[in-house]
């Protein structure tokens, strides 16, 4: 309890002491300090207080002599007799710093705008580059998706004439025998790979559509070759069937012996001589 009372007393003592000191402090208004403040900012250069006091041409103001006069340091005299070095004058160092800071701020804003533009452009380029967003591309949705759908749905490893979209099994077997099916299978594998690469690999948007276009041209040639194989083999089979029917309609003539040939000739020309 005594310790607590003692601490309260000490706190009260310091509070009353601080209040008493605050009451005794008076505002300081030194003209020399005010003049120095004016020189340090933009207001006025000069008013070098304290002023000299001459009596019969003799300097009698000791304060002036020690601050600006012959008893003062040389740097004080150089300062008083030197140029206007106010930092906040129109051409002062601080004003130049402020102007430079403003210029740097403007440049920083320009750089920020450029960086934001580059960032947005990079996002756009990434959207056009990556295969993740290729499915949402308008040109793909409007044209190439529809045109390349038959290639996508075409079997990767056809095994019969229906999967090859041929007329019948005879045509398929004939093309298989002449090696046309093997050639078409190689072309189909190349088109399938090109289509998969154009859909899965990351590349510029223009290059991706060039691959779409090349794949579409190759697919049209592939379909045209299948149709041509259908037509050629249909014609071949028609000729083959026609030749077979003609051969079956003609009665074969048995060959004659040499004796029979001579006798037929003698019989034909016996009355001519």
UniProtKB/TrEMBL annotation:
Out of the domains of life, which is the source? Bacteria
Q: What is this protein called?
A: DUF5045 domain-containing protein
Q: Which UniProt keywords apply?
A: Signal
Originating organism:
Chryseobacterium salivictor
The secretion signal range is 1-22
